Amino acid sequence: MKFCGFDLVACRGFVFSVFPLVAATDGKAGDAAALFERVSQSIKVKKYSEALNDLNAAIGADPALSEAYWRRASVLRQLCRYEESEKSYKKFLEMKPGNSAAEKELSQLYQAQTAFDSSNSLFETGDFSKALEYIDKVVLIFSPACTKAKLLKARLLIASKEYSSAISETGYILKEEEDNLDALLLRGRAYYYLADHDVATRHYQKGLRLDPEHGELKKAYFGLKNLLKKTKSADDNASKGKLRLAVEEYKAAIALDPNHTAHNVNLHLGLCKVLVKLGRGKDAVISCTEVLEIDGDSVEGLTQRGEAKLLTEDWEGAVADLKSAYEKSPQDMNIREALMRAEKSLKLSQRKDWYKILGISKTASMSDIKKAYKKLALQWHPDKNVDNREEAEAKFREIAAAYEILGDEDKRTKYDRGEDIEEMGGMGGGGFNPFGGGQQFTFHFEGGFPGGEGGFPGGFGGFHF
To answer: Averaged over 200-210, what is the pLDDT?
Structure first.
């Protein structure tokens, strides 16, 4: 026959008195039956202390009542009071050696004890998943009435970031023992990590009303108050334009609990926005990336990182982020405008930098442009570079194309505005070849090139200055 103590949850309706009384043959059988019925009822309503008190009293009155030892051993195992349980099993087996059911339960006790110890050890080493496997064996099979096993499971669930499951687990404990301080602490902590701070606060406050000096509850409660205070201060300073102060306060708030991702995602986003406003693109990219590592679908995170990448001139990255944000929120015209800016910047970055080719600044005067062109044209004229003629021809074409754009006020203005000058034809379009087709191109400069008006001696392909 299976002993009901193996699984109280499945055997609540079982009445212990069906077991034959293996002692009390001196006329006390009726009293023993009533005792075991009362013990059975106490266990059914989870009044384990009352059951143990009755069993202890019965053993004190009649040390030969062997079944009382067995039942006491079972209750103690349910409560994971394993050392006491082991003594009671062994006492029963001394009185009734060879009882297979009791021997099986004693074996299960050792399994339960091993599973509990293994779970604790794995918790300490950070292997939460494996630890949960072991503690489930304790809670669901061997010792379903063990509160400390249930509390360990709740801690493991929180460590595994399974906060909703931790709330359920601690809820079962509080239903049976509403003033359990550890359960209140852990349940509050689970709500805290879900960023449900009001509910977390209520759990901490209830625990502190029961024990105002409870160290962990005090730390959790005042830590949460400090976090909310820092967060509000950072947000207020950001909204008031006190950006540098807001940066420091956001960082300080994040540092209070780096593991509080459900709340810190908002702190990182606030920090990112402020850094973008300050023009600190590189730092802003880091903060926005923190947002997206927590919430990869954050439209604001993508948008702000796109803006930050524009500041760092990562045009392709900016387009990618802003396009993703726009796809998630196509009705947002601000994102669309930012995406258009990014695409334009990317396009501009991919065209040739005529100023760089001539080695001049964007504020250079027309006189500076002409001087730079003349100098480079002389330097790279193919007739002067017979040993590297192909490279010189390519350079010379590029220099001439740059001057075609920048030497013309109208074209230069359009180029500076970002218009597609290259598509207008002429030298900027890539079709200009001062050496091909035997055609003669004439460039006029005031005063000509230094050293004469006839161009280069012997000319080059009909090309004259």
So the answer is: 97
